[in-house]
Amino acid sequence: xRILMVCLGNICxxxxxxxxxxxLADEQGLDWEIDSAGTGDWHIGQGPDxxxxxxxxxxxxxxxxxxxxxxxxxDFDTFDHILxxxxxxxxxxxxxxxxxxxxxxxxxxxxxxxVPDPYFDDAQFEPVFKLIENGCREFIARxx
Length: 144
Prior knowledge:
Helix 1 (13-27) links the parallel strand 1 and strand 2. By secondary structure, this protein is an alpha/beta fold. It contains 6 helices and 4 strands; from the N terminus they run βαβααβααβα. The mean pLDDT is 97. The chain has a 4-stranded parallel sheet, sandwiched between helices.
C-alpha cells in the first residue's frame, strides 16, 4: 500500500505523519510505502522543521532525511490513500482531483477531527505527535 500524508508546508505535521506511519507499519511487518507533501510551496527542498525532527527523535523515529515537496496531481496516480491534516488541506487536495476515483482516495487522517498546525507554538509539537500517532494506529487497524 502507498500512503501520502499532506499538510500545508510539509515541514511540521506531514513529515511527522510520514515518519510515524512508516515506523508503525514497519513494526507490524506491513509492506507499506509512506511519503508526505505540502499544499504550499514555501519549503520545497528543505528538511522538516527542527521541532518536528526533535519530537520524532524523542519517540525513536528519525525524520531528518525527509525533503519537503509540493503535492501534485500525479500523486493521485501514485498513492492508494491521501491523508490530510486539516480541512484546508482537504479542500486544496480535493480541488485538484480529476474524478471520483481521485476523490475517494482523500480523507482527513483523524476522520472527523483536524490535526492542528503546531508551527507557531512549540508546546504543541508533542500533543500533535500524539494525535497523529493515534490516527496512524487507527488507520492501520482499519487497513492492515
